[in-house]
Amino acid sequence: MARIRQGDEVIVIAGKDKGRRGTVVRVYTDQRVLVESVNIARKHQKPNPNAGVPGGIIEKEMPLDISNVMLFNPTTQKGDRVGYRHLEDGRKVRYFKSNNEVLDS
Q: On the CB side of 22, how many CA atoms lie within 13 Å of its CA?
């Protein structure tokens, strides 16, 4: 079970976009995450008439290392650490360590 999953709201804690929030679009297997509208890079792209791709400079989201993001806690309005807990019905859920609020319902 991953601490950060697709669809979670995270806050960037290191790098050029420190302090920005966004939603996780994708989690890669090599411990990187793609966050919506964070870590935008400008890429020079050659035109490809066969695929209908125009040339020019495009802006594209690049993945961040998973250690540079924290899960955003809406109660405290800050980034928070995440732990695991087993409930009475046997389910394994994530919870915020600051206020013991269960994340998964």
A: 22
Specify the pTM.
0.87
pLDDT, tens only, 31-88: 999 999 999 999 999 999 999 999 999 999 999 999 999 999 999 999 999 999 999 9
**In this structure, which topology does domain 9-80 adopt according to CATH?**
SH3 type barrels. (2.30.30)
